[in-house]
Design goal:
The chain has helices spanning 3-25, 32-48, 53-56, 70-96. The chain is an all-alpha fold.
Length: 97
C-alpha cells in the first residue's frame, strides 16, 4: 500500500466533507473535528515528506476556535479548505515526481 496515495485520498475526502458542511451553513457547525483531522493529516504528511522540508515548512497546524460566532466558524472552515487544497497540490506534485 502506498501511504502517500492513501494520504492524498484522505485529504481530498476531508475537503469534500468540508464542502458538504459549507453548503449546509458552516457557521452553524463546529469546525473542531475538521481542524483536528487536518492537523493530524498534516503531521503525517510532514513525516512522509520530511526530505522536502522547504515547501512543507510553509504548512502549519490550524488553531481551533472556541467562538460560537458563525462568522468565526466559517473563517476557520475556510482556512482548513484552503490549507487542505494546498496540501493536496503539494502531495500530487510529489507523487508525479
Amino acid at each position: 500500500m502506498d501511504e502517500k496515495r492513501v494520504l492524498l485520498k484522505m485529504v481530498k475526502t476531508l475537503v469534500t466533507d468540508l464542502q458538504n458542511i459549507q453548503q449546509r451553513g458552516a457557521g452553524y457547525y463546529s469546525p473542531g473535528p475538521f481542524v483536528q483531522r487536518y492537523n493530524l493529516l498534516l503531521e503525517k504528511a510532514k513525516e512522509m515528506f520530511k526530505k522536502d522540508t522547504i515547501l512543507m515548512d510553509t504548512f502549519s497546524p490550524i488553531e481551533d476556535i472556541t467562538s460560537v460566532d458563525p462568522a468565526d466558524k466559517m473563517k476557520t472552515t475556510q482556512k482548513v479548505v484552503i490549507e487542505a487544497g494546498q496540501l493536496i497540490a503539494y502531495i500530487e506534485a510529489n507523487l508525479e515526481g
